[in-house]
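Hi F.,

I've been meaning to write this up properly since the lab meeting, where we talked about keeping a consistent format for the predictions we share between groups. The idea is simple: the sequence comes first, exactly as it goes in, then the structure tokens exactly as they come out, then a line or two of notes. No screenshots and no reformatting. I'm using this chain as the first example so we have something concrete to point to.
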Amino acid sequence: GQTYFLPAQGHINQPVQRPRQRLYHRPGDKPMASQEEEVDEEESFKEEVDRLIRRHRNEKYAPELLPYDKEMVHNISEVLHFVAEALEEYRSNGQAKDLPHHYLRSTEAERLTYMLSDYLRLRLWKLSKYPLHYMDPQRQMMLSSAERIWLHEFWDNKRMHFQHRFLAALPEKKQALDEQVDDNLDMIRRPQMDTHIYARICGDVGTISPSLHASPGVSSTPGTKDLRLFEGETYLIRYKEIRKFLVEPDHDGKVELV
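Output, unedited:
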């Protein structure tokens, strides 16, 4: 079977309107592209799948929520929807029996469906873990519109639960849930940016300057030198040192968490 899919374009958060694409031909379909075009489209779809794998892996290992990739979610969802329709039509016509490529397509579609669902599920888990942290308007720019709605409803329900269970019994000035005196006295639960992660370098990231600010209870190391990270190597490093390569569009794809 041939694949028909346009290459990814645009900013990470800027969806591109595309016509419905062909990943799986229905019975009786006529050829729609030359062999060269089919190869290009196969490669374009492979790039979309690689993009999903990278987004899922980075979201899984990053301590914080990463920018939502609306275009990738839209493209993969459209393809999976069409594949499901095509597979169902093959089954209803009795043409799927003992066809190896049918089972391979079905298995691959299930794998991508799981990965996309888990990507979205990981994001909701982080929102439920750090709701007040992501109520900040600037951080909400990294969320999808559906995630923003979910977050506000989740926090409203949680705050109401706290109010009924114990906050109402406290003095009014003690009922706040978002007080912050300084970095060490903060009621808001936040992601741990000092967490160590494994990062594979996939592009030219140049030299980074490690922060001299130590975590609570850990003495700082004087005279820390700049670090040169080489492409193709994997490093154990603090997340905040390579964070910009995961959240800034200009550096997208240069670092992959493993």
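Notes:
Residues 196-257 form one domain.
Residues 100-129 form the longest helix (30 residues).

If this format works for you, I'll send the rest the same way.

G.
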